[in-house]
Amino acid sequence: MASSPCGDGNFDCGLQIQTRSVEQTLIPLVSQITTLINHKDKLKKTEKTLRAVQRVGQAVSVAVGRFVAVGEAIAAENEDLKDEMGLACFEARRAGTAIAQLTDVSSLEQCEGDGRSTVFSDRTGMVKAARMLLSSVTKVLVLADCIVIKQIISSRNKVLVTLEQLERVSTFQEFVQIFSQFGNEMVEFAHLTGDRQNDLKDEKKRARMAAARAVLEKCTMMLLTASKTCLRHPDCESARINKEAVFQRMRLALEQVIEIVTDTRSGGEARALPVSIYAGIKDFKVKVEGLRDSLYCVSCEAVAAQLEALVEKTEDFTDSAYTSHEQRETIIQLCQITRQETKQLINTWRHAQSLKAKEATDEMELSILKTCQSVSDLRRELHRVAVGRATELLKLHSDHLVLQALKASGGDGNLEAVADYAGTLNEHKEQLVETCRLLCHISGTEPLEITCIHAEETFRVIGPQIISAAQTLALHPTSKIAKENLDVFCEAWESQLCDIAILLKEINDVFEGRRGDKKTYLSLPRPGKHSANLKTVKAAKLDAEEQTTIAKLGLELCLLTSDVDSEVERWDEQDHEMVRLCQIISSMAYSMYLFTRGEGLLKTTLDLFHQAEVRQHSFSLIGFLIESVRSLLDEDRILILSETEKLSDACQQLQVCAKTPVQGKSAIFQKVDSSIQNTKGILTVVVYLLPICNKLIRKCKSECSCLASPQHWREKQLNTTVSEETLNGNGSNGFGVKSLEQHMASLTFLESK
After folding, report:
1. Rounded distance, CA 659 to CA 647, Å?
2. For residues 678 and 653, is the Cβ–Cβ distance under 8 A?
3. CA–CA separation, 213 and 197 (whole Å)
4. Structural contact between residues 539 and 605, judged by C-beta atoms closer than 8 angstroms
5. Among 579, 587, 644, 655, which residue's Cα sits nearest to residue 616?
6. Which of 252, 232, 261 lies closest to 163, judged by CA?
7. In 10 A of CB 463, how many CB atoms?
8. How many Cα atoms sit within 13 Å of 696 on the Cβ side?
9. DSSP assignment string, 6-66
10. How many CB atoms lie within 10 A of CB 290?
11. Residues 727, 643, 703: CA angle, nearest 5 degrees
12. Which terminus has fewer CB within 10 Å in the chain: N or C?
């Protein structure tokens, strides 16, 4: 096992492959090596066969040589990796040379006459060389991957230092200067962690990383407004509490990112997810059904104890004050039925054991079926209760009346009213926290469980922060900064409610076996202070004729999103960057289709226009395509660039349309029509590009030799330079820091507010 070369964290990278990039780099090599060692023992040695074997062996040797050169360059740039990387490169070069010698069989005479060992005569030697090559190359890749981890740790450390400086500032001028630096550092950290998130193999780690990055994204804006409020009102206790909570949450999220990339916990102990009811039922059924294969694989006592643990967890449902009497009685009854069926199973099981039976008896088989059916019925009821509760809460909170009342009371300086509405918000928070806990029990996958836990923590933290921000506004009702701060926290609450709605759909998809049908955009924009045209457009309802027209357009949009999904399914690499961006664009278009049906999260034309304004993923796709065509042949490059230009035009037209202020019902209808038409134009180009790009990628892969890509891999993974575009917040993996520029521009005028 390799020791930890990353220094800043006690972890052992070993030879465990954690990322897709390392795995994908190894696949061609494994394929070529397998070709060499899996030849038939009595293979007919024709001239054609010998030339093919020699060609493969030479390709492996040349590719290893290029790969080792990259590894040695990495070692030269990183002193703490020099010895380990040097040894791994030496072993890889030696193994590559051995394979070249064993496959040097250009003629029949040479193969049979000189007595030298070849791949045909010394298969053991070939296998040994192949193992050494795979081991050493893997070690080089894993060590190189440690440099990526070092970069993330280093970036986190820079952010922490600047975060501490921000927390101590006492003047606006100093704050403007340090926050500008902090914004750039956060963008760099966002890109590094975004790439890492997409590269991780483990779904749970990807979900945890996504949750931590979501916290950092939202907290960056909160930190800005909370700090401004504290600077403007330095003696306000509620403003100080509000600010400290944001800084604390950012530190915890930064720490979580490092725990994920280093695969350790700061306390030295791994944190296990609490066992959900779904996971418990799944494991229980596996044990019960396993009795068909062996009556002695598990004890009767263990099965009975596991069932009792499951029943105890259902108390989260039955003890809830928000569970109806009917639902409570149904859950208790189903638990009792499951107990009875399990007891009957244990009786027949023990009887079969007493008869020394080697397999389940017919009576026992019937008990197994009944037990599994009863526990499945329990799971179905729990799912119905949790999803029903969540759906009701989302409807209840869709109008955000409590948030509006807090804003109004704070603006009026009415501390008593703020306290009353704060109590109501606390009740809502507790309901949402408990609902997230119930959803976690029935979510169906560990990544969704992690998302539920993240949502629970978010509501638990943001609720008190909204209250402290409202208290600050009530104490300083004329303060524009305090009002802006409350708006930001309320928007974060509304955004989390939107994410819960999407999470609910994903949980239902898993329950009904539709997992993966459509990956939903998880950052749906909501109306807020920072949108460009919020004050110039009023929400409007369409009449029946207009709705019919829009419904037809929506149906066409829906068909295009289905076409995108169909094309995406044909891709071998479902996690490819282009697939990811196209799925997000398709999902945002699908939400516009739902609007035409009067469904989904876009309730008014105002919501639709805000949705249309957000085109960063379309522009990210344009940037990706332009960057990707550099290595293509002229004919392919011209085709891709031509379609990219059409995509760019459609995106710009949509953005201009969305930002153009309009007055009057007729003008609003025309704007809705244009927004959907332009979105159709974007999807049409995407549907055309997906199969072309997929074909080009497959063609490129088939033409590449086994290790022709280490330089590209190194450039992609180890590039430490942050481009000017990245620092401006234009990259696809950023935290949305570009939106802070509007605030940064006004920081020098804060004292006039």
Report:
1. 18
2. yes
3. 9
4. yes
5. 655
6. 252
7. 20
8. 19
9. S-SS----TT---BHHHHHHHHHHHHHHHHHHTS-TT----HHHHHHHHHHHHHHHHHHHH
10. 13
11. 85
12. N
Q: What pTM was estimated for this model as a whole?
A: 0.65
**Cβ(219)–Cβ(253) under 8 Å?**
yes
What's the count of helices (H) and strands (E) in the chain, helices before strands?
26, 0
Q: Are 323 and 444 in contact (CB under 8 A)?
A: no
Q: Which two tokens stand for residue 586?
A: 């398709």
Write out the H or E segment, with its range, that includes residue 232.
helix 203-232
Q: Where are the alpha helices (DSSP H) in 263-318?
A: 277-290, 300-313, 315-318
- According to DSSP, residue 517 is labeled S
pLDDT in tens, 56-91: 777 777 778 877 887 788 778 888 878 888 888 888
> What single-letter DSSP state applies at residue 445?
S
Alpha carbon distance 325, 328 (integer Å): 5
200 three-class SS: strand
Residues facing 200 on adjacent strands = 19
Secondary structure (3-state) at 74 = helix
Using one digit for the tens of pLDDT, what is the confidence trace for 264-296? 765 444 455 678 899 899 999 999 988 888 888
Phi, psi angle pair for 569, to nearest 5°: -60, -20
Q: What is the pLDDT of residue 588?
A: 81
Q: How far apart are CA 407 and CA 417, in angstroms?
A: 10
Q: How far apart (Å, rounded) are the C-alpha atoms in residues 473 and 406?
A: 10
Query: CB of 593 within 8 A of CB of 557?
Result: yes
